[in-house]
Design brief:
By secondary structure, the protein is α+β, with helices and mostly antiparallel strands. It has a single domain, classed as Aminopeptidase (3-Layer(aba) Sandwich). The model has no long low-confidence stretch (mean pLDDT 93).
């Protein structure tokens, strides 16, 4: 019985071009203004740090980070809707943070919609601090939405 209650673990591996179709499906199901295939392809081609997380053999999440010198900028991170609410976002971010530390990153930055309270709460739980607001950063149904800039000092 305890084996049935044991939560699944997320296994991480570097993103590959063969993942792009699945990433686009997750992206479109998750965001009203999703990244394009070209966005993901450009990140892979540019050598950004790109990882996927799998649960039970299914692609369940991903993250993309641009690194320069000792800073990392989280460009995208997402858990597929079917896997949300089970702690996988926390696992994904812990993996991202560990990867950044392993690459001598000192500071991580990200932007998030203030209306995305689940994500904001997750980042705060991981000790990210709000440091700025970028006005009119994201497209929105009624014009543009601001972005909350958050920082984690590693």
């Amino acid at each position: 019985m305890s084996a049935l209650l044991k939560p699944q673990a997320m296994a991480f591996r570097p993103m590959r071009s063969e993942d792009l179709d699945a990433l686009i499906r997750i992206e479109r199901a998750s965001y009203p203004y999703p990244w394009t295939l070209g966005n993901f392809r450009d990140c892979l081609d540019s050598g950004y740090s790109t990882w996927v997380g799998e649960v039970e053999g299914e692609l369940a999440g991903y993250w993309v980070m641009m690194q320069a010198v000792d800073e990392g900028h989280i460009l995208n991170c997402c858990i597929a809707p079917a896997w949300q609410g089970r702690g996988f976002g926390y696992s994904l971010m812990r993996h991202l943070i560990a990867t950044a530390r392993g690459n001598a990153t000192v500071t991580l930055y990200l932007e998030v919609r203030p209306s995305n309270t689940r994500a904001v709460n997750l980042y705060q739980r991981l000790d990210f601090d709000s440091i700025a607001l970028r006005r009119n950063y994201y497209p929105a149904d009624q014009g543009r939405e601001d972005a909350l800039v958050m920082r984690l000092i590693l």
